[in-house]
Input
Amino acid sequence: MMNMIRDILPRLNEVNKIIATCNGDTIPFEQALALARFYYDFQDTNALIAEAEAMATENPAELKEIAISLKAETAMLLDNIGQLDGVDFRAIANAHSRKFHDVFQEASDGLNPYWKRYCELNHRLDYLPLGSKEYAEAEKECEAAKAEHDRRQTEVKRLYAEYERENAYSFDVFSFKPSHLYALAAKLNGIAGSILKDLDRMEKGESQ
Output
């Protein structure tokens, strides 16, 4: 299933648009993640080459179009990537992760009074006569307090899961370096050139 070679051009075009609009020391997290994910998703150039070899047999015309565009897009990236030199990807990643952690932490801290209230009411039951009116009323109050705590705890768990997910995305950005993207672009540019040369030889061989 040839997905990588067909997916690379729209993703690369997105990368070039992000770089073209970068004019400072920071960019939105979503854009930083798009740059990082492009590098991680397409760094296995051996898989790309394998797909190109299959496509050369099945659909050489489409492969040639892709290779021409890939060479042009990677050349553009190589020319403009210097605009990312001042971008602090680690700071962008840390700020994003911290934002979600702070939301989770605030909700988690806010849960404590509800747990404390439930514990107090539950403890009170130990000192009331079982089966008495006072016990029944206190039990209802205790159950309501537990339900409110559990409802809020569910939200805290959701926020923690959200933080974990965003923290994983943040790590992708934290560990990304423009030099990695430059090296990949240079490699892809060379692969595109080799594909075009191979296709040219195939065409000449078929015409003889």
In short: Residues 133-174 form the longest helix (42 residues).
